[in-house]
Specification:
mainly alpha, DNA_methylase_N4/N6, about 140 residues, single chain, 2 strands, SAM-dependent_MTases_sf, transferase, about 45% helix
């Protein structure tokens, strides 16, 4: 109980701390928990690296990201399929070598392509006719 009392005396405003570090800024998901709240709670209450962090309403996955940064495994669930997708994207490690290879290939391909206009055989039907002409 004493640790709970000490937590309530701390400053939890985080006014000058960015909410967009790491993958936290990927999407402006509504009603996100500030990453520093998750970070502070994990630092305060997760004792061992073998502890698993559970987030029953993971939303954009901020708690899961902070858990990874702290060296813990985590499990999150959400009813919203977009939340599941976003959290998966934010917490899936990338292979740096594969990322660099793919990036370099995109740059090479873009330099080879001399077209200044993309031709569409079937322009999307939802576009107004005047916009279809400009594709």
């Amino acid at each position: 109980m004493s640790s709970l009392v000490s937590v309530t005396k701390e400053d939890w405003t985080f006014r000058d701390i960015s909410t967009k570090e790491y993958t936290h800024g990927f999407h402006l998901y509504p009603a996100r928990m500030h990453p520093e709240i998750a970070k502070r709670l994990i630092q305060k209450y997760i004792r061992k690296s073998s502890d698993i962090v559970f987030d029953p309403f993971m939303g954009s996955g901020g708690v899961l990201v902070e858990s990874m940064l702290h060296g813990n495994n985590s499990v999150g669930i959400d009813l919203n399929p977009f939340a599941v997708l976003l959290s998966t994207v934010k917490t899936t490690p990338l292979d740096a070598a594969k990322l660099e290879t793919t990036f370099n290939q995109i740059i090479l391909d873009s330099k080879k392509d001399k077209k200044n206009k993309i031709e569409y055989d079937n322009a999307p039907n939802f576009l107004p006719k005047n916009q279809k002409k400009n594709l």
